[in-house]
Amino acid sequence: MKRLLLAVLAIVLTLGLAACSSSTKGGSDKVKEISFWHVWGDKDARPIKELVKKYNESQDKVHVKFLGNQDPQKQLTAISGGNAPDIAYTYWNNVGPWASAGAVQSLNEMIESDKFDINMLIPAATKRMEVGGEQYALPFTMSMASKLFYNKKSFEKAGLTEPPETMEELMEYAKKLTIKDGNDISQIGFIPDYPWIDNVFWPVVFGGSFYDESTGEVTPNKEENVRSIEYQQKFYEEFGIKEIEKLRSGLGAYETPQDPLITGKLAMTIGWENNYNQHRGEDGPVGVAPFPYPADRPDLKGSGMVSPTALYIPKNSKNQEEAWDFMKFLLNKDNQVDFAIASGTIPVLLEAVDDPRLTENEDVKTMWEFYEAAKSENLHGFPNSVYINEYLQSLTEETEKALKGEITAQEAMDTVKEKIQPLADKENEKNK
């Protein structure tokens, strides 16, 4: 009898251990691991690491494993090679070409079936991820140019007490703030293409656009676009092409102690939210104001250009449902606020830019004006497409020629139209 009891006990113990082993394994099977790739290096990855950790601890069905330093080329190579991550973070202008190449999954079906309210996101940012009526990605953060930065001391010396409101006033201020020694300029009020040619910002603040969805035509030579270049040309006509180029050659490096805006050699410039942060305080040398609008277009107050970052799901992601769940988590209000505080970025959730944790947080005070500006209905950007890079490059090349006085603004934009419309026609034909 004793032997029988021992045998039964041994069997029970064996079955019990097997059951425990099976339960552990079964529990492990229930946790699905998905991969998330991003572009940040270790130094800048802490804010996203915190969100990934929070997500993993918030539920027991999905574990996100993330990998940093994955630039666009690495991401595209992995997708092309069949080793795609389940979800990834990239720059918005990659979405168009990648989507057209069949590398990115459309989110339309997920958005519709989940009743995800895309309107709770800043429209200008969301629109940048749309190609041919399909939403191929969602924005995560947003960069924005909608301000005029100016040197307070230069204004004071020139007797200017308020920043300019209109484009016409901007020109008049530029004249008052420019100091010449003979033919040489020692201080200039404004250079429209400093520190670079901004071929999207200027048309946007003049009410222009780049594509007509109803006709399938690119519209670089639209009246407002041409007008924006003609306006920029006036500064070169006023102060001299050679004189401006000579001054620029001796300017200090951007955002260093020798930066011309900080030293006062340049009195005004286009302002992005992440520029001159250490100099924009109440006691700092740099003032901030809304960027001027054309006097005959007061409806364009608050205009600006947006450049968002993108969250997308590769077409060959093996865990698209789980990737979508994680994407929604990253767009949650609390997570958007936390990331904005930790990274110094603008959230894309409309509720978040109004959150007191941001708008009353002294630690991010330099961003307050940008949080408010992010709600403007006059924010726009460049349309995404398979030919986006060719389009932007052509705009830059032809705008540069116009600013140098080699061709007229109209000729410049007509040339862009001639170069890019065949590419648009080819893509339109493909999508019929």
Roughly what fraction of the amino acids lie in strands?
15-25%
List the total number of helices. 19
Radius of gyration: 27 Å
| Number of β-strand runs | 15
What does this structure look like?
The N terminus is likely disordered. Helix 2 runs antiparallel to helix 14. With 432 residues, the chain is an alpha/beta fold. Strand 1, helix 2 and strand 2 form a beta-alpha-beta unit. Strands 1, 2, 3, 6, 7, 8, 11, 12, 13, 14 and 15 form an 11-stranded mixed β-sheet that branches. A two-stranded antiparallel ribbon has the order 4-5. The chain starts with a helix and ends with a helix. The longest helix is centred in the N-terminal third of the chain and has 29 residues. The protein contains 19 helices and 15 strands.
